[in-house]
Amino acid sequence: MNFSESLEKLTTLVTGDLADLRQLLVALLIGLVILVFFIYLSRWIKKLVRNRLDKRTEDSLLSSFIAGSIRLVILLFGITLVLRFLGLTGIVSGILAGAGITAFIIGFALKDIGENFLAGILLAFKRPFKIGDLVEIQGLSGKVRALNLRDTQIKTLDGKDVFLPNASIIKSPLINYTIDGYLSYGFTVGLGYGCDYRKAQELIIHTLKGVAGVLSGQKESSALVTDMGDSHLLVRVTYWVNTYNKKYPDVLVRSQAILAVLEALEDAGFPLPGNIIELKGPTPVGGESVGK
């Protein structure tokens, strides 16, 4: 049915006698019931699909995106079915064409929506990040909260919720600090000249092994001399943490590691210059430094 036929039918029903008006109200009521049915049906299927996918895969990002896409398809099918039932399919296309909106939608809205939707599909299947990963995109750092059909939600470390269009993420460099769960932190400490440098290195490594949350084995800590200052020797200390270990948050482990090393060196009598200890590692929100 084209636009003129649909408009003529709607006009006849509205301006007709009482029987025609009743027919219109009944049709609208049935159409509303069908629409509500598909809304609840889409929600139920989305929940069902996500639960099934969550049992078969550990990637909640992918299961959420697929379930959301299926719900959208069901909703669009329901809306189309309601319009066909009411015989008004020609009105929608006719209004868009008559007002010149079709070209606008195709040229702008659909381009943006389609581009972000396709980018979301690529992100969901390529999986450069998962829910909870610490990422940096376009200068913004935070943890991934959700991947939607149009955008990706990121929670910055200072509490802001940022929604980035999926297409912009595909086109921009992305840094994932926790893609495998392991993260390296480090800091530089100065040792006064004349002390036993090798013993200080061994003490630092031994101390880090006793800090809860610091990894060992293949992710061994290190204490390497990097440079010679005016009054001290610079030692770069590095260690690894598992960001998926919620019992020992990486921020807490970093604090304990620095304090443990400083206290161990002081107790052993090693001279520590009174300059700034430089911290090295992913510090997305601002910088950090610790002074003595």
From TrEMBL:
Membrane topology: Multi-pass membrane protein
TM region(s), chain numbering: 23-41, 61-85, 91-110
Gene3D superfamilies membership: 1.10.287.1260, 2.30.30.60, 3.30.70.100
Pfam family of the protein (one): MS_channel_3rd
Domain Mechanosensitive ion channel MscS C-terminal: 187-269
Protein localization: Cell membrane
UniProt main location, coarse: membrane
Record-annotated Mechanosensitive ion channel MscS domain positions: 115-178
Record key words, sorted: Cell membrane, Membrane, Transmembrane, Transmembrane helix
Superkingdom in the source lineage: Bacteria
Record keyword Cell membrane present: yes
Family per similarity comment: Belongs to the MscS (TC 1.A.23) family.
Designated name of the protein: Mechanosensitive ion channel family protein
Species annotation: Cyclobacterium jeungdonense
Highest classification ranks of the organism: Bacteria, Pseudomonadati, Bacteroidota, Cytophagia, Cytophagales
